[in-house]
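dumping this here before i forget
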Amino acid sequence: MIILMAALPMLAIAQNSVNIKVDSVGKLATQIGEQKFKISDLKVSGALNGTDLKLLQEIVTRTKTDKKNPDECLITAIDLSGITIVESNDKGGFKTLANELPKGLFSGAKNLTKAVLPSSISAISKDCFNGCSSLVDITIPDAITVIDAGTFKDCESLAAISLPTGLKTIGNEVFEGCKNLTAIQLPDGIKDIASQAFNKCKSLKNINIPDGTEKIGSSAFKGCESLTTLTLPSSVNEIEASAFDGCTNLETIQMASVSKIGTSAFLGCKYLKTITLDNIASLGQYAFQNCTSLETVKMEGSLADVNVSAFKGCSNLKTISLPSSLQEISNHAFDECESLEEITLPNSIAKIKDSAFQKCTSLRTVQLPSSLKSLGDDAFENCSSLDSITGLTLLDEIETNVFRNCGNLRKVVLPATVKRIGSKAFSGCSLLTDIDWPAALKTIEDGAFEKCASLQSVNFPNGLKSIGSDAFKGCIQLPSVDLPVTVKEIGSSAFQDCTALTTIIINSGTPPSISGSSFKGTNASILIPKGSRAIYSADKKWSKVKGVKENK
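structure:
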């Protein structure tokens, strides 16, 4: 057997290692000469100015070689441990300060895999290694106290890094996008975790937050989807907006001492199960929205407001303890908390705003506090298991859709002070049989009791002026209606399809305003005051209504 092997061309890659000691400031170009693009591993020592550093930037950040010069290569390692930086402002070079690296010095050096920083510096400048996507090894001297914003941003290959013990400050976005960073040890002395510091570090599993840290900045750990557990020291008092947004595998976090939690701080942390906040004073919008595994929340402190959508979509939330300081529950705060069966509302609450408990489909009983003065639109809409609601004592209005489609609600006691029942307030409450009608009631708005199929009696108070369109439409068990003399308006389809309705008593000698469909679908006798037949017959719309008779 004859075996033929083709000769494959081999790619020649230069592996030149060069060590240069700069004899005189500004002379790096002279000493490095024509070999500047033929070096893969460069070590430089001596005093450098802005012109020297500009040359280093040119060498290190190149991403392509000249195909006409096969000896050229791209640099992969740089060692600057032996340099010092002098103050300079030479034409064509960087403006430098003593022992400070220029901003963005090696930004975009996509082939750089290893770097050793000068031992003479105390800070790493902004964006110094930003976008160095191949960097895997970085040596940071012990003297460093500050790592400025964006220093290692998008260093996608960086899996580990050792930080000096004297480090005091890490800047915004410092490790953002380091998607292979798995663990990091933060030294004592760090006061704040800056905004976006570890944003999109999606492989990060282990990180310590040192004692003395006071704040977790906005989006600091956003998108850290491998983070499963975290303990915050008692010194941490604030978690800013979106700090842990999208940490989809975070199961536990110890943060009992935190007093401020920002907007969307834990949005979408779908495996987070328990929250304990012993000193909470401020809770941002969407703080725990869509934490779908969250079962238990305990809050104490001086919190005044459960903010907009704070727990919206927490579909497994079963138990929540609210602080006695609470004054408001904001829009959608517990919307779609489908497993919440009961909640104790402290007596300090004055407002429950729009859609606060909308779609809490397991909620059965609600004792509203005697302090409650306002109940917003849709507050308990679609709470299909709700069978009892008490404590409406201070309200003067029942707002739009507030108990709409509460299909298990059987009885409602409305306070005597209520003047208005809003549109569709009890629409679809198919088991509602009895209502205590408030003495101050003036207006029943459109669809307020539509499809209340079990409603068997109404006792309208004197003073009622208006019954809106569809107000009692489809109340199929309602046998009779007695409208007080004060009623001036009956909307279209107000009693349409009330098929059991046999008697409607109108007590006003002046015909109320009606629509042609106000009593459509009923066979009721409509009894008007004795001696008023001529007036009713003269009314264009009333003259077409069937079954109108004078009351005896």
